[in-house]
Specification:
- Helix content is 11%, strand content 24%.
- By secondary structure, it is α+β, with helices and mostly antiparallel strands.
- The protein has one domain (6-134).
- 25% of the residues are buried.
């Protein structure tokens, strides 16, 4: 099923990019961003390779204890807790706070009171220009 994409603008270079949001509560997953290119890794909690780690809650950014269980990004970077998605043009990290302007402007739920979480660690993750990998466990 195709995802509905919206347009965001990089706060560094002012270039536009496509994006979509994933809700990890509905998707029953955790996620992380590559520390080099910003690609999004989405990890299903139903995948048999998902490690059962104490103090690693689901449906949000993955815990740091999960980092060794993931394959490296194809760019050579690593998926780590605390990283941010990056602009596909200038490759600088995007601010979740500044992204609020385009995320809320594009989200139909905003008219009904929905608000963006304003961080890259909550229940929503973002996929920029289709840069995503699923279940990249070792």
């Amino acid at each position: 099923m195709p995802r509905e994409e919206s347009i965001g603008t990089c706060e560094h270079c002012q270039q536009q990019f496509r994006y979509w949001l994933a809700h990890c509560g509905f998707g029953d997953c955790v996620y992380s961003y590559c520390d080099s290119c910003g690609k999004t890794a989405i990890l299903s909690m139903w995948d048999k390779r998902m490690p059962k780690l104490p103090n690693c809650p689901g449906q949000q950014e993955m815990c740091s204890a999960m980092e060794p269980y993931l394959q490296a990004c194809d760019c050579g970077g690593s998926f780590k807790r605390g990283c941010a998605p990056r602009c596909p043009h200038c490759v600088k990290p995007l601010s979740a706070e500044l992204a609020t302007s385009y995320i809320e402007a594009n989200a139909p739920g905003t008219k009904k009171g929905w608000r963006w979480q304003r961080d890259w660690s909550g229940v929503y993750c973002i996929v920029i220009d289709g840069k995503r990998i699923d279940n990249n466990f070792r």
